[in-house]
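Methods — Computational structure assignment.
A single polypeptide chain was analysed. Its primary sequence is given first, followed by the predicted tertiary structure written as structure tokens.
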Amino acid sequence: MKKNIPYLVAAMIIALGFSCRPSERPVRLEASFQNAANDSFFISEVFTESVNRIDSLQAGHDGSFTWKTRISQPSFYLVERHPGEQIILIIHPGEHISISGNISDPMNSIVIEGSSDSERLLELNRALTRNLMELDSLFDAYQDPATGSFNRNYLDEINTRAQQIHEKQREYNIRFIEQDPGSLANLIALHQQISQQQPVLDLIEDYEIFARTDSILYHLYPENEPVQAMHRNVLAAGEYHQRNMLKDEVVGIGRIAPEIKLPSPQGDTIALSSTRGNIVLLDFWAGWCPPCRQENPNLVRIYNDYKNRGFRVYQVSIDRERETWLNAIEEDHLEEFIHVSDLKYWESPVLGKYYIESIPANFLLNEKGRIIARNLRGNALEEKLAEIFENR
């Protein structure tokens, strides 16, 4: 099945409500479309949760019409003939804009003049459409037309090529933003999507780009709701980003693992530092956690392969019930591991030390107690240990 390539709507409808300013300036839009004699056109303003139709016009026999209004601040507008035949504009007060071409083929034929942000936005979306079409062709080339499925032998090749296309669009959007940092079209560049669940730029992973753009747009347009909405999102992401930076400072690769001293099932206090001299998997788990329990057989198998070569497993349980903890140790055959817990569930202070927000979670430590890897499971853990012990 072919993927649908939306023209603009998915990427356009972001936080676009705008507050009012006291002074208004005139705007003039002159349109001349091919094959549009006497057709009806609709003008809509795009907001956060709605696209509000504000005017309708009938083109003349030559496919042209003129629209006039007065606005106090920039906003996003949609010029539409039929669903799917539409052009998105970013109109600033005082602009005199002309549009020409074939509205049925906006990606190839439309020309916009007199509105810098609208021109930039058109080019931005043309770039995205080209890459989406390239992705569509890629999937078609490897898809079985009879079943609609992909040949598993080519999945790696498909994924690699798809990632290259994604990265090409990502680099384009970054350059686009850097070329005119104060353009409102950058709001769209930050929020375009390759697919429904795959943004071109990610607020967390690309936080610095969002933060730089936010600082400029918020300074230029502090009263504009879309800018305010992005500002709120960037502030929230900033808190998350700061937390991750602190996390890396404390439990990042190369850091000494914070000390843990907790009681064992027998009541003895066992310090994490007592395992120095070994390669240690510090594993956070619980008897009530299905993913943790599913991973335990892998840990047992890997432990048995390397226990005579200096590999240890130090498991910290965040169980609340002692019986649940001990039963899980017995049922999963974990008796040879080092086990500790304060049975304080998510209230355990050790979770804060390691910035643990979900389990399973683990840290691989070298003989000096330094963190050398995080959250390795199954084959990934096995491959890392094989690398470590290869020459020992």
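Note: The first helix runs from residue 9 to 12.
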